[in-house]
Amino acid sequence: MNIGFIGLGIMGKPMARNLIKAGYRLTVYDISPESIEEIVAAGAEAGTSARDVASRSEVSITMVPDGPEVEAAVLDSEGALEGAGPGSIIVDMSSISPLVAQKVGKACAEKGIEFIDAPVSGGEPKAVDGTLAIMAGGNREAFDRVLPLFRVMGSSAILTGPVGAGNVTKLANQIMVAVNIAAMGEALVLATKAGLDPDVVYNAVKGGLAGSAVLDAKAPMVISRNFKPGFRIHLHRKDLRNALLTAEALQVSLPFTSLAQQVLVSLVNSDRGDLDHSAIATFIEDMAKTEVKKP
Ligand code: NAD
Predict the structure, then answer these.
(1) How much distance in Å is there from the Cα of 11 to the middle of ligand 1?
(2) Do 143 and 136 meet the contact criterion of CB atoms below 8 Å apart?
(3) Does residue 63 contact residue 91 with C-beta atoms inside 8 Å?
(4) What is the DSSP letter of 272?
(5) From CA 175, how far away is CA 179, in angstroms rounded?
(6) Do 20 and 133 belong together in one domain?
(7) For residue 293, what pLDDT is reported?
(8) Which residues contact 210 (CB under 8 A, 6 or more apart)?
(9) CA gap 12, 16 in Å, rounded
């Protein structure tokens, strides 16, 4: 099967690599020529635009930052939809607003092209291992056709509803992750200022009810002062903005998400937007003048 991959960043590169390793023929494109070269060296062919990639592919995957980039990569005159042939499928795996996913899905449907929104969770380590959690929206038949690709990139792939549902699910995921990291930051700052070793505290609680995938991934990063992304603060801010806009449209109050969003805005303003989102903890550290690290 010929697969197109558009958007070769922190996530797109390892996902594309795994598809190549699984034996798929890949044509790739990114606005950064260096990123294209890197994946061509791993066995892909270079595309000259998203449109070119789609014209050579039965399934075209996009993995770009946000809605405007998805619209550019799919709907522009040089976008994937212009190149997509009959029977082909466009799968957007970026995390974007469900409303934008529906807009792109509608434009695809008008041209007879199937569209699936299929954002992921798990971050770079799981993208590398091919163990992402994939949450999809679209029709069942199209989902079943791309399921073998999802099985290469992820360890779970669930169809959650029609187009847009994948991104609603992803927003739910991002709310839980952000608020969890903030709670972890408060807990570890308190323990550290009380004179405890935060690593000992982490090990003592991780097997109990407070244990979580978030805690296991992020507490060691904070304690070792490693904020290399991973998942950038900028991107999490984007996700919570999309969550709050969606909540506003649905008349849902999200008080804790709003608070987490304010923290993310403040971190961006203090030049921490390119750090991993585990650096949410540094906001609480600043207020307590206490750094979470081993004594
Ligand atoms: P990134 O910024 O590292 O990569 C995005 C890539 O898209 C870049 O290489 C950029 O040059 C390219 N791009 C931008 N506009 C383009 C266009 N119009 N055409 C072609 N290429 C274009 O971002 P990332 O961390 O790989 O994240 C990608 C998406 O996955 C985001 O929506 C993010 O929220 C989501 N996500 C990221 C993580 C993570 O841990 N990094 C985890 C889950 C989901």
Answers:
(1) 7
(2) yes
(3) no
(4) -
(5) 6
(6) yes
(7) 93
(8) 187
(9) 6
Active site residues: 170
Atom of ligand 1 nearest to the CA of 238: 34
- Tokens representing 222 are 């904070």
Residues 199 and 128 in one domain: no
Nearest protein Cα to ligand 1, atom 30: 94
Please answer whether residues 146 and 181 qualify as being in contact, where contact means their C-beta atoms are separated by less than 8 angstroms.
Answer: no
- For 101, the domain range is 2-163
User: In a structure prediction context, what are the per-residue pLDDT tens digits for the chain, which is 295 residues long?
Assistant: 899 999 999 999 999 999 999 999 999 999 999 999 999 999 999 999 999 999 999 999 999 999 999 999 999 999 999 999 999 999 999 999 999 999 999 999 999 999 999 999 998 999 999 999 999 999 999 999 999 999 999 999 999 999 999 999 999 999 999 999 999 999 999 999 999 999 999 999 999 999 999 999 999 999 999 999 989 999 999 999 999 999 999 999 999 999 999 999 999 999 999 999 999 999 999 999 999 998 8
Longest dimension (CA), the chain: 65
For residues 269 and 38, give the distance between their C-alpha atoms in angstroms, rounded to a whole number.
32
Q: Which two tokens stand for residue 50?
A: 């998203």
Q: Which atom of ligand 1 is nearest to the CA of 76?
A: 18
- 293 domain-assigned: no
Q: Whose CA is nearest to atom 31 of ligand 1?
A: 65
CA-to-CA dists, residue 56 to 1, 82, 120, 293, angstroms: 10, 12, 25, 51
Beta strand extents in the chain (DSSP E only): 2-6, 25-29, 45-46, 59-62, 89-92, 114-117, 120-121, 132-137, 154-161
Task: Indicate if 225 and 179 belong to the same structural domain.
Answer: yes
